[in-house]
Amino acid sequence: MIQNKEKLRERFLRDPLPRRLGGLAATLGRISSSARNSTDPAVVKNLLEEAKYLIEWTAADTTPEAAAELVSMQTLITLWAKVWDSPNQEKIQRTLLSVQAKQWSDRAIDLSGLL
Predict the structure, then answer these.
(1) Which region holds residue 4: left if phi is over 0, alpha if psi is between -120 and 50, else beta?
(2) Cβ distance 50 to 34 under 8 Å?
(3) For the domain bounded by 17-112, which CATH number is listed?
(4) Of the four listed, 5, 31, 67, 102, which is most buried by Cβ atoms within 10 Å?
(5) Are the C-beta atoms of residues 51 and 31 closer than 8 Å to each other?
(6) In this predicted structure, what is the pLDDT of residue 39?
(7) What is the 3-state secondary structure (H, E, C) of 14-68?
(8) Rounded Cα distance, 13 and 19, in Å
(9) CA distance to 12, 20, 79, per residue, from 71 (Å)
(10) What percent of the chain has pLDDT over 90?
């Protein structure tokens, strides 16, 4: 669970939209790296939860097309979070989430216009 969710929200919403999308991209990048390398499933689970909230706090301020993409990401992130604690978690699952999160991160950067 996210510690100090309300403080995170307040701080996050102070940033302009491109920076918020960049922050989302960074969190997704951390998911990608942690899914591949972390031995603690809680690390990835917490990052998935954070990404869900960052999308929730950002999507409404984007274009309808971008919002639809973000909500689609959020749906898949929610599904990943539900299965991530599985005791049968295998390397292939970690690799799949890592690749998918990297794609999401790249897309969030595209949407931000920061590059």
Answers:
(1) left
(2) no
(3) 1.20.120
(4) 31
(5) yes
(6) 83
(7) HCCHHHHHHHHHHHHHHHHHHHHHCCCHHHHHHHHHHHHHHHHHHHHHCCHHHHH
(8) 10
(9) 18, 15, 12
(10) 79
